[in-house]
Amino acid sequence: MTKIVLYIATTIDGYIARKDGSIDWLTAFETDETDHGYGEFYQEIDGLAMGRKTYEQVLTFGEWPHPGKPSYVFTQQSRSPDRDDVLFTSATPDKFLHEMELQGLKRIWLVGGAELIAAFLQCQLIDEYILSIAPIVLGEGIPLFLPSSTEMRLKLMEVQKYPTQLVQIKYTKEKG
Predict the structure, then answer these.
(1) What is the distance between the alpha carbons of residues 52 and 75, in angstroms, rounded to a whole number?
(2) Would you say residue 176 has pLDDT above 70?
(3) What's the CA gap between 32 and 176, in Å, rounded?
(4) What is residue 61's predicted lDDT score, i.e. its pLDDT?
(5) Is there a contact between 129 and 154 (Cβ–Cβ < 8 Å)?
(6) DSSP letter (8 states) at residue 174
(7) Backbone angles phi, psi at 97, to 5 degrees
(8) Is residue 32 scored above 90 in pLDDT?
(9) If you average pLDDT over residues 119-133, what whole number do you get?
(10) Residue 168's beta-bridge partner residues?
(11) Bridge partner residues of 128 (DSSP)
(12) How many Cβ atoms sit within 10 Å of the Cβ of residue 98?
């Protein structure tokens, strides 16, 4: 069974990016001492799912940061990837999950953005939530969770405090 894992950084006031999509505020928490568990997490995933805007933001970082792992970009636009490991899809979240199960992929990182997260939430397809909360208040930006009619209860699994003052909270979807 394929698990969808939301692994994302957010500000303390719940924003994943500035209004323009910039995540420049996050660089203040980068350090040589810790990767905030990213390396271990990345080794445990089989593929990535991201929205088109997130994909375009990742392209501005320079070299593609996810070589060798299939990256599925959700878009309604007709596009051709520049890489073999980037695939564009217009599938619904439930059809995408079914395709990943058929391919035998066990863990998919739901990278973002907010619209794609909302679509997966609406279908109740997110199995794990790993939220890195940065001690910064932006006041405005792109919210982690868009308004939704879906209520979901989560079970706390772990809390990790890092020397950078960033806190990482891990939840799983509560059964029942």
Answers:
(1) 6
(2) no
(3) 41
(4) 86
(5) yes
(6) P
(7) -60, -40
(8) no
(9) 96
(10) 132, 160
(11) 5, 172
(12) 13
Q: Which residue has the higher pLDDT, 61 or 52?
A: 52
Q: Which residues pair with 154 in a beta bridge?
A: 173
**With contact defined as beta carbons under 8 Å apart, do 113 and 143 qualify?**
no
Please choose, from the candidates 41, 70, 45, 57, the residue with its C-alpha nearest in 3D space to the C-alpha of residue 130.
41
Q: What mean pLDDT comes out for the span 129-152?
A: 92
Number of structural domains the chain divides into: 1
pLDDT at 43 over 90: yes
State both tokens at 99: 């395709």
Range with top average pLDDT, 35-39, 79-83, 93-97: 93-97
pTM flag (> 0.85)? yes
Residue in the structure block whose two tokens are 């719940």: 14
**Helix, strand, or coil here: 86?**
strand
Polymer length of the chain? 176
State how far the Cα of 71 lies from the Cα of 49, in Å rounded to an integer. 6
CA-CA distance, 161 to 168, in Å (whole number)? 6
Domain range enclosing 130? 3-173
CA pair distance 175, 173, nearest whole angstrom: 6
- Pairing relation of β-strands 167-173 and 128-134? antiparallel
> What is the domain-level CATH number for residue 43?
3.40.430.10
Alpha helices in the chain (DSSP H): 38-43, 52-59, 93-103, 114-122
Cα gap 132→159, rounded to integer Å? 10
